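Changelog entry

Holo records now carry the ligand SMILES as an explicit input line rather than a separate metadata file. Below, a converted record for flavin mononucleotide, shown in the new format.
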Amino acid sequence: MNLSVNVCGIEFPNPTVLASGYLGVTGASLANCVKHGCGAVTGKTLFLEERPGHPNPTVLTYPGGIINAVGLCGEGVKEGRHEFEVFKSACPSNPLIGSVAGKNIKELVECARIMDSHPVDMLELNFSCPNVDDEMGRPIACDPLMTAQATEAVKKAVKKPVAVKLSPNTADIGLIAKHAEAAGADAITAINTVGPGMLIDIYTRKPILANKVGGVGGQGIKPIAIRCVYDIYKNVKIPIIGTGGISNGKDAIEMMMAGASLLGIGSALAYHDMKAFNMIIDKIRSFMEEEGFTDVAELVGLAHE
Ligand SMILES: Cc1cc2nc3c(=O)[nH]c(=O)nc-3n(C[C@H](O)[C@H](O)[C@H](O)COP(=O)(O)O)c2cc1C
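Structure line, unchanged by the conversion:
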């Protein structure tokens, strides 16, 4: 049975990919995901310069999922190199995706150019965080023309394959994906968090997140993520890293049937800890055995037939 996947000419040992922002700050924590079965990892989104992010509290869980306003904190992209080297020396054959963003297109391109020179296999452009204020006023991925312009500018500056990470917070994600593909994107990652949303402490009578609002992820957004991936698959030919609300193996299989070639694993870690990766892979394997599939790629897009 073949669980490996070739996406953008890169060999992924299995379809699970650590989603950006979860455990992605150090090379050692990225390598620990691989030790627990994860096929590939995505680093935390980095900007050109160091960013403090939002004040605490920044992450809350609630029965439907997780709301966060971390605010894309982290070191600058140049300083990030060391952690990528640590990961690559521990896991040379597991793909590493470097996630970047920018306050404006000029900074985004410079950040991507630096990331391209790091030991990463692929870049992911985070056009879709709903809880940061940048100079563009709203996430790039809410606008088809801005998505195309930013993708094209980055593609001219880098050599490695580029995945564009899209937002569910738009009326027509299929159209946005089409614009990204036409502008040269090699893959689509979908989705980033939904919202923004808000939770209120009824005793202090105030929003709980210091930033008041945050992006919503986790179990509750699964049907939105599945529908977004389904719409994107209908509209583009490039591969999709299906992300959002995957909390077990059945969710992962649904995501592949909607059209995902790879699976972004985030919230599953909140529910199952590091056991999540092997739990998902084992379920995919047993489902394939029961249903007579021999190659995991056979699952991709089945819900469209
Ligand atoms: C605490 C937290 C931090 C995140 N940080 C990033 C980030 O740095 N870059 C990014 O592209 N997405 C980030 N995300 C979004 C996730 O990668 C993912 O797209 C989203 O949470 C949906 O997947 P999930 O339902 O499995 O969590 C973050 C999500 C959470 C909960």
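Spot-checked after migration. The longest strand covers residues 96-100. The pocket of flavin mononucleotide is lined by residues 19-21, 44-45, 59, 66, 68, 70, 72, 99, 126, 165, 192-193, 217-218, 221, 243-246, 266-267 (CB under 6 Å).
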